[in-house]
Records
---
Amino acid sequence: MPALKSCFILGVLATIVNAAVHELIVGTFVSKALYTLAFDDEDNSLELIANISTPVPSSWISLSHDKKHLYGTDYIYVGADHNRTIPPVYVGYTIHNSSSITLDKSLSGVRPCNGSSIYIIPSPNPPHAVYGADYWGTPGCGCVMSVDASGALSEVIQDFEYLNDSGVHGMSFSPGSQVLYSADTLGNYLWTHAIDPTTGRLGEVLGMAEGPSPKAHPRHVVTHPSGKAIYAVMEGSSEVAWYTVDSTTNVPTMQEPMYSLLPSGTNGFSYWGDTLALSASAKYLWATTRAKNDGVPGYIAVYELNCDGTIVKEKFLKETTTSGGVANALQPAEFSDRYAALTDNEIGFVEIWEMRGDGSDADVIARIDLADQGNARYASGCCANAVWLN
Ligand SMILES: *[C@@H]1O[C@H](CO)[C@@H](O)[C@H](O)[C@H]1NC(C)=O
Ligand SMILES: *[C@@H]1O[C@H](CO)[C@@H](O)[C@H](O)[C@H]1NC(C)=O
Ligand SMILES: *[C@@H]1O[C@H](CO)[C@@H](O)[C@H](O)[C@H]1NC(C)=O
Ligand SMILES: *[C@@H]1O[C@H](CO)[C@@H](O)[C@H](O)[C@H]1NC(C)=O
Ligand SMILES: *[C@@H]1O[C@H](CO)[C@@H](O)[C@H](O)[C@H]1NC(C)=O
């Protein structure tokens, strides 16, 4: 049973390999900055170690497979703009070290998709192409970008369309990057596109799974390392759905039950499902939802998984400190199954959550406020999402 064995060994390693100080990079919605933080897992301190000026704010950032490059969105809120004439822009940086991050390049979608870039993710497999999604554009579009030999963003190699009413907010790959899954929030679909293994360009649409209900609105999607399951969080209904994946086509099929990110009796339309992500060993799935009103807390949940990705059970569902603003974005650590960073935009802070040893609960063990200038839509300029450098 090789799969079970490696799943078990990974789980053990993930809880014992533990350096003392870990660094994170945090993106923003408004402020033109990337913040680097240091988290010490011995004394639980969380400090700002660099405030790096950038040409644009990035509502979503992601790291290359070797963590030498960072990719981001050039984010502008254009949801109320019905005559937008500018295509989405994506940015790439070189990480020299945690306090020196420099711009490599900005790339623009070449078709007039006219949305704002909202999400970006590099493939962990060669040729390490980078995939971007725009939002509020008509039609909903995406962009495939190549990288040079060092991993720096190079050029747009493909612009592609979803549907006129689409707006993709999150993407994930099958383990070998044979396919790309796209969570189409506005279109209410989960797409499966074939990926050309040589170029990284997208090929045919292999599947379009409708959201579990008309107003579910899939927002983020993540793939279990076994390749046998994927998970999606629904923005509209604040639910987590899981899907088994066909071993030949990589196309997902939804399974029962769905898991609510809200206590029973709560009005789902007052919340926006946000992120979901796997713990280091993939033993746990973490997920969050945000409250639409400041002063009302959002929720965080953890689910226990089998080695094949089946959800065993919900471990806990707990209020977050604030609504999360438009964030409450969660990123589990890579050095342990037990830690995750959570960003807030109501006040503008980053928290570190630690799960108890048996996974039955989690607590905030560190927090740093980065409350910089927001605007009419964003209470604080900070904090969009965080990524762990180590
Ligand atoms: C959209 O913007 C263009 C360029 O600024 C302008 O010429 C056009 O009249 C605008 N259309 C509408 C419907 O506002
Ligand atoms: C997008 O902007 C271009 C100008 O850059 C304009 O010609 C086009 O009509 C716009 N598309 C939509 C769907 O508004
Ligand atoms: C980070 O990199 C910059 C630029 O290469 C360099 O000047 C600085 O000394 C480095 N800092 C550390 C802590 O290594
Ligand atoms: C998208 O909208 C345009 C303009 O209304 C229309 O010409 C086109 O057929 C639509 N495409 C799809 C896939 O519905
Ligand atoms: C980062 O630096 C900018 C420019 O000096 C400043 O406006 C901003 O408040 C700083 N952010 C934090 C969290 O200190």
Note: The chain has a mean pLDDT of 94.
---
Amino acid sequence: MFPSLGFVFAALSLVRCIPVQQVSSRNKVLLVSFDGFRWNYDQDVDTPNLDAMAAEGVKARYMTPAFITITSPCHFTLLTGRYLENHGVIHNMWFNTSTGVKLPYHSTQGVDSWWDNGSLPIWITAQRQASSIYFPGGRAKYQGEEVNMKLVEPLLFNYSNETNWRENIDIVMQWFTVNNLDFIALYFGEPDSAGHKYGPESTERKNMIEQVDRTIGYLRQRIKESGLESNLNLIITSDHGMETVIKTDEIHIQTVQNFTFSDIQFELLDYGPNGLLVPKEGKLEHVYSVLKNAHPKLHVYKKADFPRRFHYANHPRITPLLLYSDPGYVIHGRYKVQFNKGEHGFDNEAMNMKTIFRAVGPAFKQGLVVEPFESVNVYVLLCELLGITPEPHDGSLEAVKPMLRSGAPLPPAKKLTVMLGIALVLGCWGGIY
Ligand SMILES: *[C@@H]1O[C@H](CO)[C@@H](O)[C@H](O)[C@H]1NC(C)=O
Ligand SMILES: *[C@@H]1O[C@H](CO)[C@@H](O)[C@H](O)[C@H]1NC(C)=O
Ligand SMILES: *[C@@H]1O[C@H](CO)[C@@H](O)[C@H](O)[C@H]1NC(C)=O
Ligand SMILES: *[C@@H]1O[C@H](CO)[C@@H](O)[C@H](O)[C@H]1NC(C)=O
Ligand SMILES: *[C@@H]1O[C@H](CO)[C@@H](O)[C@H](O)[C@H]1NC(C)=O
């Protein structure tokens, strides 16, 4: 049922061979991501556990993700504090524009060179003693190093099984208490899947938020039972929001007048609202001119002209032409193969792409609602909580400091035992491949 468990236990016993530092006084950190949790998903559902957490801790009105607003890139921003053009994980899919090879989400998780492009995720820096349960990016090696303890999701994985969620929470508690880890990142593939499949306004999505809320209740109860309440800082966040897909007046590149795929050397289309194109030699101007006014909701740019505010295009992996579409509209390529009712990937300034940030624990103020901030700032907050020196990043500690208890002494930098938590990879692209 869960083939990777064997691996987890193997990793656990391996760690036991290393002398475990005995109970340090440092505060521990648990970073939890519920994929695709739109900022306002708790406003039309009864969420007693999220409400209690907000009352006892800090809640941002919302958090602005990085662009493009998709899973692996946005999680890697949380883990590195960098925008996509600076960390290099510019898509969920690995691709090679010379050969045309593209790898789907799950396979891309295993391509080290895709992730290890100059930025170290916090668990490597912190570790260099970390561990991970299914977090996007948790499977790769960075500069030859990987996280100590991790649980990687199998290819076919039921991302919505609540029993399994609780088992993973129990593993996390064990890793904190028995293995004395200081940092764990834990990933859940919902409510993203429900949002894609049924749409963000559906009953199914609302039911899933109730499940997420119960899970948060279970998590906080287990934190108490494990004696971790006074020294564990819990952060609950996500990668992006969700938008209802508009099924009329669709953008379909194949049907654009004077456009032909025979002018194209490489294309990455049919991935929500984002597209990457390499025209054949000498065809760039022509392709650009036929696409740029093809549809009022479609934006087409040459790489050098892509709006700077997105912090997206200035990277060698970005192709000569980039496409993105307005909220609600997805980009169809040769054939229509996208049937999701909900989608993301849109402009990170669109309200429906905004996501959540909540935190509770000894380092955080109580009952505080803070103004929105960008997700590039989460990394330096994690470093501050763990007392480690951040790598170069695009965030600012000033942006997140107001949520910390004034005068709360933060731990001095020293070696920690870190573990990167549970990343349940998304089932969301099932409808696409
Ligand atoms: C893409 O494929 C070409 C041809 O096989 C190869 O030379 C190049 O190194 C590859 N690029 C990447 C990033 O893998
Ligand atoms: C990032 O990857 C690109 C190709 O995909 C490569 O040209 C570049 O050198 C890499 N940068 C680092 C720092 O690894
Ligand atoms: C996943 O597990 C839940 C039970 O927790 C079940 O309701 C659902 O049907 C399962 N989904 C799939 C695709 O098996
Ligand atoms: C849910 O997960 C539990 C524990 O991993 C497993 O025993 C059960 O069969 C799963 N249910 C479904 C419907 O996948
Ligand atoms: C398509 O090409 C024809 C012939 O070159 C030209 O007359 C027409 O204006 C073009 N239409 C568009 C939308 O570019």
Note: The first helix runs from residue 5 to 17.
